[in-house]
Amino acid sequence: MTRKLDFGKVHIMRLDEEMQTWLDQRNLGENSETPDTVCERNIITWLEHQADALRLDYLLAHSDDGITWGRRDGSKIISSHQYFKHVSPPLRMETLQQARLFGPSAELLLWRYGDRKYHARVIADMTSETDEAHGEWRKTEYFDEPQMLWGDTLEEEKSGFTLWREGAQGLRHALPWTLPSPQTPRTDRQLDRAGAEAPPCLYLRHYLADEPAARVYLSRLIGIAPYDLGV
Predict the structure, then answer these.
(1) Which residues pair with 158 in a beta bridge?
(2) Rounded CA gap, 95 and 175, in Å?
(3) Residue 170 has what pLDDT?
(4) Beta bridge partners of 138
(5) More confident position, 211 or 25
(6) C-beta pairs of 225-230 under 8 Å, 24+ apart in sequence
(7) Which helix (H) or strand (E) holds 107?
(8) DSSP result, 172-191
(9) pLDDT digits (tens, 9 = 90+) for 124-175
């Protein structure tokens, strides 16, 4: 398949001083609250602040005990754990491996490395609202790629989340995404991957290095949408 290439400017950003200080304090264990309180409230508050400041729409978090999806609602993050606790764990600092906040214009990645400390970075595209004077912007070509997500059977829908099951193994996850109004009942409805009903996809943006041979040097998440053959 021939990829459609676009052209723009991209920047790998550092966190602002306040947010980096918060991470440093967590890494040093500097908090006066109980571990349980810190685990859930502080990490969600930090992610909410970042999502609101950068206008990022979605959350994808990988923990030792499972996957948690989320979506931004105003200045808050609504997580899949709130509606599907049996398949989606809460966000805990002790078990969180990595979390991504993402949207059309940027992605923030928070992760733990071998030193077990938190690290974070932001990849941002230049938009009409971007101040080019802040940071080093790199001109680049890029293309977007859809990746099909788990789920051939839609089991349940709650408050903007859909619970999907995949195959005989019954793998499940709860996406912050809903289907267009269906003509058939939404419960246990098989998807036709040939195109009668486009399955949900996670879209990635790949940036190409300015070299004689095309090479992807940077990638990030940009959104969730139905599969599009034209991409």
Answers:
(1) 161
(2) 21
(3) 78
(4) 10
(5) 211
(6) 225/146, 225/200, 225/201, 226/198, 226/199, 226/200, 226/201, 227/146, 227/148, 227/198, 227/199, 227/200, 227/201, 228/146, 228/198, 228/201, 229/195, 230/4
(7) strand 106-112
(8) EEEES--PPPPSS-STTEEP
(9) 998 756 555 555 777 888 999 999 898 888 889 999 999 998 877 778 999 9
